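Suppose you are handed a protein chain with no further information: no name, no annotation, nothing but its sequence. What can you learn? This example shows the usual starting point.
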Amino acid sequence: MKILVTGYKGFIGSFLYNHLKYECGYNEWVDGLDMPDDIGNFKGPSKNHYDIVIHLAAFAALRDSIENPEKFWKNNVEKSRPIFDYCRENNVRLLYASSAGVYSWWQNPYAVTKKANESMAPPNSVGMRFFNVWAEKESRKDMLYRMLQEDNAKYLTLHKRDWIHVKDVVKAITLLMKSKYTGTIDIGTGKEVGVIELASAMGKHDLPIRKMTPNEPDTLCADTTELEKLGWSSTINIMDYVKDHADPKLE
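A reasonable first move is to predict its three-dimensional structure. Written in structure tokens, the prediction is:
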């Protein structure tokens, strides 16, 4: 199976790329592209086409998208179009990064780009609606979990979110690769945890609370029904992990 992973140096992409290359035995059959320039110039091979393209190259910082909407549209939509077109024209299976944000896509430019991706996706594709992906140490610097770890968070919100570990995401993608599933699918745990609850468990009790967040939904929680039909289940619970690794000085 010949596989292309775009964004293979990114957060989810690097975990997936290494998993496929070194744990699944696809060492000689996995190619990687990273953003932004080579993604926009993508043409694809004229013969010996990829069997599957996993498109993870995207800008994903919600608040940055509000300040720089054009940047997000150009990268997430315009630069994705050649990849989508290649897969459509050559019937190459495509798994692409969508977002839980599409459930209220009108609230911010990032979610708009993901809604656009779903609208322009070819038939043999899966829009992977990622919820709040995290990892113990490798989360992106703009993600709340890491900001709480590094004491960079400036405020908390009243949001409730579905926190899914990146290794569970990789497991979901691997199952989708081998399946015949098409359309969109939620990739989350199906359990919501409040931002304040998470912060408190991490010993962050004194941050101010921002009650008004018009560009973000109050609650996001995945429906894992379709993933579970593929044999998937989440294995790492963020609250269990945080409690197991709590600083005893904070208890």
